[in-house]
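re: that chain from earlier
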Amino acid sequence: MTLIKGRTALLLALTCVTLANCGGVRLAQAAPVPTPMPAQMTPMPMQMQMPMSMPPGASHAGQPMDMSENEPANPLNGTQWSILNHRGAGFFVLLWGLSAALVGLQWPRRTWFRFVPPLTLFALAEFLIIRNDPKTWPIGPIGFWVSFRDPAVFEHRIFVLIIIAMGVVELLRAADRLSPALQKFALPSLAVTASILLFFHHHGGLEMEQMMAHANDPSVAASPAFTSMLKSMTVIKHEHLWFSIVGLCLAAAKLVADAGVIKGRLGATLWPLFAVALGAYMLGYTE
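^ sequence. v structure.
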């Protein structure tokens, strides 16, 4: 009996030793291996650092960006663009006068060529819609309705509507679908309206108005930019004055021709000569 108790105690002791050894092995396997820390952290290279993203249309200071930064590069400045625009319009006016003169020389014959002059007016209107104001619709960032806040842009749109109306009138005349009263007074009235508007046309738009608002400031008035602007405005007004004078002469010649005061081939070719003169003068436009 004593021997059995001794063996049992020995087995219990061996079992405890075995369990203790297994627990130590498991604890050693579960414990993470410590990673040695470097003495000094290596900074991340600049090219690997990711920049913070910014919302579109915001500057680094959190303010909206200027619209001009998103505009496409324009190889022409404002003066060069305006000169090219007036000379391009003069080219279409010259074509209108020459084609109308050829129609007058064919009098009393009526050929298909009588439809060419109104088509040149539509081409002129399309040219002006695209090129009148490079900062506004359809080629600029400023929307169509917002652009009407600028008086110069608003007047340009009025001129385009007048040119389109002149094209419609002449197209209906060529198709013999115009009433007698409109045949006499429609085109002369539109030409007179356009000529009068040129006398009061705003040049330079809002930028010009802002500069003129500070004209009483001695520092602004003495600046080279302000002096150059005044000289340019004098030339521009002189050019548009002659546009108006020739336009009024064209309207008078067209009225006497359509009213039958000057009949025949002479009346049919007289008013186109003023259109040719106006187009030729516009080809030499300068500012």
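Residues 38 and 104 are 97 Å apart (CA to CA).
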